[in-house]
Amino acid sequence: MTTMTTAHDSSHGSVRAVRFGPRSVITLALVSAVGVVAFTWPFLAPPASRLSAHAQDAPWLFAGLLVLLVAVLAATISESGLGPKAVAMLGVLAATGAALRPIGAGTAGIEPMFFLMVLSGRVLGPGFGFVLGSTTMFASALLTGGVGPWMPFQMLAMGWFTMGAGLLPGPDRLRGRTELLMLAGYGFLAAFAYGTVMNLAGWPFMGTLASSIAFDPHATVPANLARFVAYCLATSLGWDLGRAAVTVVLTLVVGPAVLRALRRATRRAAFETPVTFDPPAP
Question: Looking at residues 264-276, what average pLDDT do you find?
Fold first, then answer.
């Protein structure tokens, strides 16, 4: 009888569902570069630039570019090892994250999905983290009806910060309270960073609704930076603080159980274990 065996070594540390190859790294760098320009163009364009005259077109232009580049990135990463087991894990986690997001919608920044993204990125690595963050935001937008030119920005921002959790030090050695505190600290900072980045996506298009904190295409970079800081303090500080607090609390309280479940699932899935067939017995 032919039997199937796997050479899984339990002594290994964490398992990565997606590993970056050279093409994936180059594509991610390209996506990120376009994303940085898409988020920060108000500070990059000089006051006399004609780009400001087409400010209302900018979100649609960058959204189209980001959708194409994220699609290329996903295809590249899938070629580097996103097998059926990883796709199944991706689907489960993305669906869970999308279902968690509406729970606190409109309520003081309560977003429980954020802690799940941080823990998933930590266990499954930066490659899986980027794909998961982007996919979850796409699925939640479809679920909540939040589809618009801002959606690719949300996908990219969440992909970055989920990937960042996978880049934290000591994935194979650091465990216990120290790891939880590190993840809680990262989640706290990432929650504010996510809110700040998303503010950049909408701030230049306020028009004259609040002239003292709106983007001024004729002002200098330091002046617009001051306006942007004032905008963040006035509009999103409370929301970001709520998101950060919820992420920290859930990470410390529920984190140990979720980390164990994710690591047990990845060991059983054995994403990187080659499957071999024993020869028939004589």
Answer: 63
